[in-house]
Fold this sequence. Notes:
Elements: H1 14-26, H2 31-46, H3 57-67, E1 75-78, H4 84-92, E2 96-99, H5 111-117, E3 122-125, H6 137-141
Parallel strand pairs: 1-2, 1-3
Helix pairs in contact: 3-4
Amino acid sequence: MKLNIPRGIVYHKVINDIIALSTALYKNIDEKSIVNDFEKEFAVYAGRKYSLAFPFARTAIYLALKSQDIPRGSEIIMPPITIKGILDVVLDLGLIPVFVDIDLDTLCFDCNKIEGSITSKTKAILITYLFGIVPDLDRMID
C-alpha cells in the first residue's frame, strides 16, 4: 500500500512571509519582550501560572524527559515516523526507543499495539500528531 503524504502545506499567503521577513530585517524588534509576552498570554490561556516557550520541539522534549529523572536504559514508546532530532534526544538521555507501528487509517499509533509494547521498563510514550491528525488520546490514556 502506498500512502500519499504531503511534505507540507502552506496555509497563508506568501506576502505574509515577505512582511515578516522584512520586519525582522529592518525593524528593531525586542525579541525577549515578544517571547515574554507570548509566554504570559499562553500561561493565562492554558490556565497555568507559568509557561515556557522553546525554539525547537526537540529542546522541549529533552527538558521534559530530563525533568522526569527517567533512569538510563528505560524504554520510551514512540512512533516509527518521527523527526530524527527527537530520536537523538531519546538516545542522548540513554533511553531506549521502542517503536510502535501506526494505524494506516489514522496515521497515529495503533492503540492495539501500544498496550502490548508496555513493559516494566516503559517510562513514557511520546505521542505525535502526525500530519495534523489528532490521535485517540482518551484510548491511549486508558
